[in-house]
UniProtKB/TrEMBL annotation:
UniProt entry tagged with the keyword Zinc: no
Protein name: GOLD domain-containing protein
Topology within the bilayer: Single-pass membrane protein; Single-pass type I membrane protein
Any single GO BP term: intracellular protein transport
Origin species: Helobdella robusta
Length: 205
């Protein structure tokens, strides 16, 4: 993996070649990997340089003579460290700015990455589906909760009204019982009361 988490090696460079200079850098490559390289002189007089890629055994893999750009697409023939050289010695007075891009990878690694990405998309789709179901269930639960709250409030008001009605009826019944008791006492007392005089107003013996 490279610094971006992609399979293989990927590099982008912008190199300033001084007038009359020769610079090389090294990169390890694996045998049978796909290798691509592109370079272009962006700035500097005639914008031409010599460019060469040298194999670990010292043989030249690719050589470009006094040109402003070049491209290589091949399979790596040998495992080891390759040397990439840029030569500006033919230009005595002009600096050159060179852009360089190269990558190396195995197709199997990219196929695996593609499969992993597809699996990730499938997993995200499944998670999205589950969240959709969860959201629907939450909405249903909120609906049930609203109905339950409504029913609870309805029952509470009904119980409250019934309680008030029972209290009123209890008070009325208590008043009726008390009044009836008082009337009964008065009636019984009158029933057993004996007049002290006779109907002719004579004292009773």
């Amino acid at each position: 993996m490279d610094v971006y988490g992609l399979p293989g090696m990927h590099q982008e460079l912008k190199v300033e070649l001084a007038a009359g200079s020769f610079e090389c850098f090294h990169q390890r490559l694996q045998k049978d990997a796909k290798f691509s390289l592109f370079f272009e002189v962006l700035k500097g007089a005639d914008k031409n340089i010599d460019f060469e890629i040298i194999q670990p055994d010292g043989m030249s893999l690719q050589n470009f003579q006094w040109t402003n750009e070049g491209q290589v697409n091949t399979r790596v023939p040998l495992d080891g460290v390759y040397t990439v050289c840029m030569d500006n010695r033919l230009s005595r007075y002009s600096n050159k700015i060179v852009f360089l891009f190269m990558n190396s990878y195995f197709e199997a690694d990219w196929e695996k990455l593609s499969k992993d990405i597809q699996d990730l998309y499938d997993g995200v789709a499944n998670v999205t589906h589950y969240f959709s179901i969860l959201d629907e269930n939450v909405k249903k639960m909120m609906g049930y909760k609203s109905q339950n709250v409504h029913q609870i409030l309805k029952d509470w008001y009904l119980i409250s009204d019934n309680n008030k009605h029972v209290q009123r009826m209890s008070i009325i019944l208590c008043a009726v019982i008390i009044l009836t008791s008082v009337l009964q006492v008065i009636f019984v007392r009158k029933l057993f009361t004996v007049p002290k005089t006779t109907p002719t107003s004579k004292p009773r013996a």
